[in-house]
Design goal:
A two-stranded antiparallel ribbon has the order 1-2. A two-stranded antiparallel sheet has the order 3-4. It is built from one helix and four strands. Strand 3 and strand 4 form a beta hairpin. The chain is α+β, with helices and mostly antiparallel strands.
């Protein structure tokens, strides 16, 4: 089993941050990062998906993310 990690990158000069999930399959990264995104105020549309997440559609609402399998 591959090690999983949640990385939070913060630029102290600009105040910008980036949350990155590593080692997750499909869209399971959304569940893993959700609490961090809510705490830091990530807005819908600010996400960048890695190629391994492209196998499913994502429907995001303000307080939850739903995975839809194709």
């Amino acid at each position: 089993m591959q090690e999983r990690a949640i990385l939070v990158h913060f630029d102290s000069q600009t105040g910008q941050f980036k949350i990155e999930a590593e080692g997750f399959e499909g869209l399971s990264c959304l569940e893993a990062t959700q609490v961090f995104e809510e705490a830091l105020g990530v807005v819908e549309g600010d996400r960048t998906f890695k190629p391994e997440a492209s196998s499913a559609q994502v429907k995001t609402t303000q307080n939850q993310t739903q995975r839809l399998r194709q």
